């Protein structure tokens, strides 16, 4: 019952994937701290400091905490008011041979900051795989509906026709940019490394009796043991909080992509042209039993708005870090960083679920086209009359008058658009009446939309997903199921 008696963030308790929720869990955080202490001890031993084999083995054997160790650490933190030292003490109890050398020469940020960089990199890797799956699913949808004409909208007013597939490529292009941005952010990440209390490495220089080469090698070795190709060349006590800004920027940008896409789907649901998945037992409204609310798209918009705001928090934090550091970033970042990645993870899962079950209603789409196409076809009708020997200005005036009459039927009387019927009844248009069906074929109004879809998928989407890492993620991906 304890879980029901205290506040639980819905990000982890209600929405997020197990993988992302575990990544930012206390168990993984303190496990990662212990691995960092182990890497430091290994490197210090290799470079000649008095670290025994027994100490290394005991540390390796106790990298994971059990429930009792969590209780000890909690009691120690309450007493010492210092989370890192509480865990140094707890680790030393299960690895007594290492108790005297755990955290040797390091500052708290050695574990806290380096661990955060590890989590950020792993989280971006998870998001990259999930985003690749979303792109793949929407690409299949675009291909399936590459040539299905649909009414385009500008200002949410009827405009020239496009196709359902072409509209989808507009979403896909932005998702591809997000894929690029996620990968850039991840691959650009460095390691804080072994820098000491204010970034000067003074404590390590003292440990190695003034040997600068050994201190530099220690930094390189711990960086390599921790899986990074490089460490930031200079740091203060922390890595620059501008790194958090650079990491959250692509997440916020993705939030804008997701919000735009989901908003389009919500509008399409209102038009009854395209709907998100809706289970047979799902309830749209507690009062209105007939409703099929776009709750998935609405959830995406809701969470995406939150995601877009989090970069502002990182910007504010980076801007107020005094000199070598202040501690007013700590509590803030404990919330902001996990929330950003958990939120992005949830949005991606929901997008995948939506993309795998979109329902298209071609007859509704065709009916809406039929309401608007006659007005759009007027220029084609005028050109056909001219080709048949008619006068352009006379044809224009005829069409203008008939168009206004048809518009009156639609706007004032609520009737269907009967412009074409009026054209058929007018003897002036006798020379082209046998061409009217061809002139009104929706597929002749979509331009190169189908070909643009084909080319975009072949030249942009498939190459972007051809990367071995992304192919592996696609191979492992099943259908996305929502917990709620």
From TrEMBL:
The keyword S-adenosyl-L-methionine does not apply. Gene3D superfamilies: 1.10.275.60, Fumarase/aspartase (C-terminal domain), Fumarase/aspartase (Central domain). Its EC number is 4.3.2.2. SMART domains: ADSL_C. InterPro entries: AdenyloSucc_lyase_C, Fumarate_lyase_CS, Fumarate_lyase_fam, Fumarate_lyase_N, L-Aspartase-like, Pur_lyase. SUPFAM superfamilies: L-aspartase-like. One of its GO terms (cellular component) is cytosol. It catalyses: N(6)-(1,2-dicarboxyethyl)-AMP = fumarate + AMP; (2S)-2-[5-amino-1-(5-phospho-beta-D-ribosyl)imidazole-4-carboxamido]succinate = 5-amino-1-(5-phospho-beta-D-ribosyl)imidazole-4-carboxamide + fumarate. Pathway: Purine metabolism; AMP biosynthesis via de novo pathway; AMP from IMP: step 2/2; Purine metabolism; IMP biosynthesis via de novo pathway; 5-amino-1-(5-phospho-D-ribosyl)imidazole-4-carboxamide from 5-amino-1-(5-phospho-D-ribosyl)imidazole-4-carboxylate: step 2/2. One of its GO terms (biological process) is 'de novo' AMP biosynthetic process. Keywords: Lyase, Purine biosynthesis. Pfam families: ADSL_C (PF10397), Lyase_1 (PF00206). Residues 373-457 form the Adenylosuccinate lyase C-terminal domain. One of its GO terms (molecular function) is (S)-2-(5-amino-1-(5-phospho-D-ribosyl)imidazole-4-carboxamido) succinate lyase (fumarate-forming) activity. It comes from the Eukaryota. Belongs to the lyase 1 family. Adenylosuccinate lyase subfamily. Homotetramer. Residues from neighboring subunits contribute catalytic and substrate-binding residues to each active site. This is Adenylosuccinate lyase. The lineage of its organism: Eukaryota, Fungi, Dikarya, Basidiomycota, Agaricomycotina.
């Amino acid at each position: 019952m304890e879980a029901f008696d205290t506040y639980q963030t819905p990000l982890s308790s209600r929405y997020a994937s197990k993988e992302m929720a575990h990544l930012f869990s206390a168990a993984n955080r303190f496990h990662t701290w212990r691995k960092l202490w182990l890497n430091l001890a290994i490197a210090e031993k290799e470079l000649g400091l008095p670290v025994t084999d027994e100490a290394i083995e005991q540390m390796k054997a106790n990298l994971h905490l059990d429930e009792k160790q969590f209780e000890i650490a909690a009691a120690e933190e309450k007493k010492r008011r210092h989370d890192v030292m509480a865990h140094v003490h707890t680790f030393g109890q299960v690895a007594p041979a290492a108790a005297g050398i755990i955290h040797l020469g390091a500052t708290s940020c050695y574990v806290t900051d380096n661990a955060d960089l590890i989590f950020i990199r792993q989280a971006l890797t998870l998001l990259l795989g999930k985003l690749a799956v979303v792109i793949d699913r929407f690409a299949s949808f675009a291909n399936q509906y590459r040539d299905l004409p649909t009414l385009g909208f500008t200002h949410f007013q009827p405009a020239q026709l496009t196709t359902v597939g072409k509209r989808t490529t507009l979403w896909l292009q932005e998702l591809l940019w997000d894929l690029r941005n996620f990968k850039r952010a991840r691959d650009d990440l460095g390691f804080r490394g072994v820098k000491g209390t204010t970034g000067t490495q003074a404590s390590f220089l003292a440990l190695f009796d003034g040997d600068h080469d050994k201190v530099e090698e220690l930094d390189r070795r711990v960086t390599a043991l921790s899986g990074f190709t490089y460490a930031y060349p200079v740091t203060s006590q922390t890595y620059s909080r501008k790194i958090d800004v650079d990491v959250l920027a692509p997440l916020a940008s993705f939030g804008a992509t997701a919000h735009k896409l989901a908003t389009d789907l919500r509008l399409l649901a209102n038009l009854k042209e395209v709907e998100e998945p809706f289970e047979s037992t799902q309830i749209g409204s507690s009062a209105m039993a007939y409703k099929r609310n776009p709750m998935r798209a609405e959830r995406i918009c809701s969470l995406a708005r939150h995601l877009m705001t989090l970069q502002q928090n990182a910007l504010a934090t980076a801007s107020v870090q005094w000199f070598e550091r202040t501690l007013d970033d700590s509590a803030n970042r404990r919330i902001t960083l996990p929330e950003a990645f958990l939120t992005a993870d949830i949005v991606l899962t929901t997008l995948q679920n939506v993309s795998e079950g979109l329902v298209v209603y071609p007859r509704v789409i065709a009916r809406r086209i039929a309401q608007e196409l006659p007005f759009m076809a007027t220029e084609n009708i005028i050109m056909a009359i001219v080709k048949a020997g008619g006068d352009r200005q006379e044809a224009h005036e005829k069409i203008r008058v008939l168009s206004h009459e048809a518009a009156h039927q639609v706007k004032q009387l609520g009737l269907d658009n009967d412009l074409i019927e009026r054209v058929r009844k007018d003897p002036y248009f006798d020379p082209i009446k046998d061409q009217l069906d061809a002139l009104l074929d929706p597929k002749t109004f979509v331009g190169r939309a189908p070909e643009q879809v084909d080319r975009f998928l072949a030249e942009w989407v498939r190459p972007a997903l051809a990367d071995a890492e992304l192919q592996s993620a696609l191979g492992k991906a099943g259908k996305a199921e929502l917990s709620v």
